[in-house]
Design a protein that fits this description.
The longest helix is centred in the N-terminal third of the chain and has 16 residues. By secondary structure, this protein is α+β, with helices and mostly antiparallel strands. The protein has an eight-stranded antiparallel beta barrel with strand order 1-2-3-4-5-8-9-10. It has a two-stranded antiparallel sheet with strand order 6-7.
Length: 279
């Protein structure tokens, strides 16, 4: 009888450990924001719309594997900076982003769908993925793709790729709305393997060569400080010539670009509650 009781207890505990095995799927909506050469002081003044879908597989009530596909819009403008060099550089960009990531997730607290006691937890996650982007700038009222113009003098065939790997990480808070549904609030970041999300990374090119290869519009979008000559900003700071000079710093290639998501979403749980929790 004693062995039979111990066997039942073992089976019950095993079921409880595995009670949260199963898939969750859902979506989220929120905002995105960029940090990089055109936003070095972590401004939050140009957030864009964002959203995505996700799939989570719970190994137990602590550990999960998650996959996600997201979209957003990021943008920045030197005119919003407090840094004199950045203001006079006068660059700006906007890009749609789409990414996919694979991450491991850890719940700080025991989290059991449908439980009265363990129905919420903060969590963290980390992993990797890839991002598709396409920086553009507005000139004369029209949006122009920047990569084909080689604004930093890239040779044909050596342009940066519009797909880049990234490290993904972040944290959030989840709470049950019912046994099947949960609310997830989280912030996540994508540290990219490229510095060209904003089309700014190294130095100003030879403008004669750039004009020959890509036309005057490439020169105009490479050095937009020309547009500020004679402005109050230049006159007040004694600046009489364009910032863009061949070989002069345009960006900082040592710091890769980053963007973040902040959002609220819901997830639907497809697993079964195997232990007799009270709800």
């Amino acid at each position: 009888m004693k062995k039979y009781t111990l066997f039942l207890l073992f089976c019950t505990l095993t079921l409880c450990v595995n009670a949260q095995r199963g898939f969750e799927a859902g979506g989220w909506l929120g905002v995105s924001n960029y940090f990089g050469d055109l936003n070095t002081n972590f401004r939050l003044d140009k957030v864009g719309p964002a959203g995505g879908v996700g799939l989570r597989y719970n190994f137990n009530n602590r550990i999960a594997l998650r996959m996600g596909a997201n979209f957003g819009v990021v943008q920045a403008d030197d005119a919003d900076s407090d840094n004199l060099f950045e203001k006079t550089r006068n660059l700006s960009f906007k890009s749609k982003i789409a990414d996919a990531s694979l991450m491991m997730e850890f719940n700080f607290l025991q989290y059991d769908h449908g439980s009265r006691d363990f129905f919420w937890t903060p969590y963290i996650f980390a992993g990797f993925g890839a991002t598709k982007f396409d920086p553009m700038a507005k000139i004369d009222g029209e949006w122009v793709e920047l990569r084909p113009l080689a604004t930093e003098g890239q040779f044909k065939g050596e342009e940066y790729s519009l797909v880049a790997g990234h490290w993904a990480y972040g944290g959030g808070f989840k709470i049950d709305l019912s046994f099947e549904w949960s609310l997830n609030i989280e912030i996540s970041a994508r540290r990219m393997g490229t510095d060209y999300l904003d089309d700014v990374s190294t130095v100003y090119p030879d403008f004669d060569d750039l004009e020959t290869a890509h036309g005057q519009i490439a020169v105009d979008l490479s050095d937009r400080s020309v547009e500020l000559i004679g402005s109050d900003l230049f006159e007040q700071n004694g600046i009489t010539e364009p910032v863009g000079q061949e070989g002069r710093q345009r960006g900082n290639s040592k710091n890769k670009d980053t963007y973040i998501y902040v959002g609220i979403g819901v997830m639907y749980y497809f697993g079964d509650l195997l232990c007799p929790y009270e709800r």
